[in-house]
Design brief:
This protein is an alpha+beta fold. It has one domain: Roll (SH3 type barrels), CATH 2.30.30. 15% of the residues lie in helices and 43% in strands. It contains one helix and five strands. It is globular, with a radius of gyration of 10 Å. It holds the Pfam family SspH. This is Small acid-soluble spore protein H (Minor).
């Protein structure tokens, strides 16, 4: 995924499915300078946040 799409997803009111290595995640925020996004797992592990490279995110 590219940073422009991440920005669109974060600002969208729609529920857009995003996967990180096959796991469904929510994008909480992004760091354009570093090319990363902070995500948490959709499966209820809301406390488990990770900073991941944007290019490893995939829109479902």
């Amino acid at each position: 995924m590219d940073m422009n799409r991440v920005k669109q997803i974060v600002s969208s009111p729609a529920d857009i499915q995003v996967h990180y290595h096959g796991v469904s995640v929510w994008i909480d925020s992004y760091d354009e300078k570093n090319g990363t996004a902070t995500v948490h797992m959709r499966d209820g592990h809301l406390h488990e946040k990770r900073e991941v490279p944007v290019e490893e995110l995939e829109e479902a």
